[in-house]
Amino acid sequence: MAAMVEIRDARKVYDGGFEALKGVTLDIEEGEILALLGPNGAGKTTLISCICGIAVPSSGEIRVGGHDVVREYRAARALVGLVPQEVNLEPFETVWNTVRFTRGVFGRPRDDAHLEDILRRLSLWDKRSSKINALSGGMKRRVLIAKALSHDPQVLFLDEPTAGVDVELRRDMWQIVAGLKEAGVTIILTTHYIEEAEAIADRVGVINGGRLLLVEEKAALMTRMGRKELRIDLHDRLDTVPPELAEFDLALEDGGRTLVYSYDTAAERTGISRLVAAMAEAGIVLRDLRTSQNSLEDIFVGLVHDGEDAA
């Protein structure tokens, strides 16, 4: 079965010669949540714009639901809902008319009950008669989400949807995303809040400099590239790491009261047993042990740094 979104060697060159996308190839399956991570200027928004028909790729092919986004623009665009970064709403229109108009633009039949449900889930129902210019920034962001959902899209793009918004909206947003996923909607998320991607994504893609550096299942990525850190609190302070422990490449922190040992979670042996035994032989008494694993943010920073070095 074909993927819901198919991207083949997509390139985008702007006037002046700037190449924002450099041959991106990616399949996004129906009903999955893909988190697309990358620093500012990495190409995330350009890629989304090309998929949604806002920008035209310079070369390559992009299909949504089997429809080419250039040759079959209307059919492809009808399947897509977009929550953009920028708030661009008619200031003197009401919330209700704004959302209802968007549904009509996509040729969907009138369904006031459906729109009411969306507004209620986004805590906008009480504001349905309010004009956009009377709303707070967070409420305007909710209206953008309601517009994107108004025509029942099969693919939903969230371009930094919770940047600068309140905690309540963020919580509501992810509840809605979870419900849409259960209904089979494909969701592509760009975010600077990496903990959000870590919490809800099925797969993670990292883009930088217009190139897709990696796309992998989140759990597999963290298993393959994550490292664990063992922090050993000592009974007595050390001035330096003893020569007997040199092979373990330990770091000394907290004024000499903590030894830090990093190890690969995928390795056949972690070396922890040997380390503890070597400490005992060296007469070092430990007081406590704690472990922590690299977060998705740690992995992301490392990938982007490696990509910049390769370029």
TrEMBL record:
Q: Which UniProt keywords apply?
A: ATP-binding, Hydrolase, Nucleotide-binding, Transport
Occurrences of domain ABC transporter (ranges) = 5-234
Report whether Transmembrane shows up as a keyword of the record: no
The UniProt GO MF terms for this protein read: ATP binding; ATP hydrolysis activity
Signal sequence, start to end: none
Concerning Pfam families, the annotation shows: ABC_tran
Q: From the UniProt record, list the coiled-coil ranges.
A: none
Q: Which SUPFAM superfamilies match?
A: P-loop containing nucleoside triphosphate hydrolases (SSF52540)
Membrane spanning stretches:
none
> This protein's superkingdom?
Bacteria
The EC number(s) attached to this protein equal: 3.6.3.-
Q: What is this protein called?
A: Daunorubicin/doxorubicin resistance ATP-binding protein DrrA
* Annotated source species: Roseivivax jejudonensis
